[in-house]
Amino acid sequence: MTDDLLAQIRVAGGVPRHVAVIMDGNGRWARERGLPRPFGHRAGMKAVREVVEGAIEAGVEVLTLFAFSEENWQRPVTEISALMQLLEEYIAREVAELHSQGVAVHVLGDRERLAPGARAAVERIERETRDGQRLALNLCISYSSRAELARAARLIAEDVLKGVKRLEDIDEEAVRERLYTAPWRDPDLLIRTSGEYRVSNFLLWQLAYAELYITPVLWPDVTRRDLFQAILDYQRRDRRFGRVTA
Ligand code: IPE
Ligand code: IPE
Ligand code: MG
């Protein structure tokens, strides 16, 4: 049933190589059903599977998902512990499948703040999927873009103090290579679900020229069809990068 959209994507050509997603709306999804917020987070795991499989089918090379922000640490402890438990559960349940699908998982963010169990799970999935060649799946956990940029500044300053870098060598490339996302190109397409028109401290540097796609669908209701619709919309865009096109 998704073959029609996939066929259209193939005909249009120019699939976004890197797609980033702000997975939002779990709490509202639960509230609409009179359920506590963690039920929405649990339901959201299915959407993660959908989007990962859809990305592989469409030929996306890098998928970067915003799962938990540094600001989210300010939520009630019960919600945070439910989320951390789900993270461990997700990893235990999906690691073998992701590995067999050729997905290499990377976790971006301040992992020092994770509880020991969650950190061990994160290290496990990175280790066991390391050789994946089909899709790089970046999970941003305890991530904020401003903290990432401050960290990059600190790492560069250290190099200058050690004398391995000169002040005049600090250029865009020097910053870029100190970001968590250094191994990958910038996102071509940013998707945000749940109809919010903001970036919430996500990839502020990397999104400079990303195409934005906002859908009202709440994250737990997202299927690969929504990803395919976003890709089709992206394929109709005229990316100019500040230049003039004929
Ligand atoms: C997104 O859903 C998941 C996380 C931020 C962890 P929310 O929990 O933000 O859901 P809403 O925005 O309250 O509906
Ligand atoms: C952004 O969603 C963070 C994640 C999706 C992990 P939030 O729900 O935390 O963002 P705001 O509060 O609506 O800006
Ligand atoms: Mg939200």
Question: What does this entry look like structurally?
Answer:
The chain has a single domain, classed as Undecaprenyl pyrophosphate synthetase. Helices cover 45% and strands 15% of the residues. A 6-stranded parallel beta sheet has the order 3-4-2-1-5-6, sandwiched between helices. Helix 5 links the parallel strand 3 and strand 4. Helix 3 packs parallel to helix 4, helix 3 crosses helix 8 and helix 4 runs parallel beside helix 5. The longest helix has 24 residues. It is globular. The model has no long low-confidence stretch (mean pLDDT 98). The structure holds 3-methylbut-3-enyl trihydrogen diphosphate (IPE) (2 copies) and magnesium ion. The site of one 3-methylbut-3-enyl trihydrogen diphosphate (IPE) has 11 residues, from helix 2. One 3-methylbut-3-enyl trihydrogen diphosphate (IPE) binds next to helix 2.
Helix/strand class = alpha/beta
Distance from N terminus to C terminus (CA atoms, Å) equals: 37 Å
For the CA atoms, what is the radius of gyration?
Answer: 19 Å
Helix % is 40-55%
Number of domains: 1
- Basic shape: globular
Lateral strand order in the biggest sheet? 3-4-2-1-5-6
Query: Unreliable stretches, pLDDT < 50, 5 or more residues?
Result: none
Kindly estimate the percentage of residues that lie in beta strands according to DSSP.
5-15%
Number of helices: 8
Q: How do the SSEs run, as a string of H and E?
A: HEHHEHEHEHHEEH
Compute the number of strand runs.
Answer: 6
Kindly provide the name of the CATH class.
Alpha Beta
Which molecules are bound besides the chains? Answer: 3-methylbut-3-enyl trihydrogen diphosphate, magnesium ion
In CATH, the architecture is 3-Layer(aba) Sandwich
* Major beta-sheet overview: 6 strands, parallel
- Give me the CATH superfamily: Decaprenyl diphosphate synthase-like
The CATH topology is what?
Undecaprenyl pyrophosphate synthetase
Q: What is the quaternary state of this protein?
A: single chain
Mean pLDDT: 98
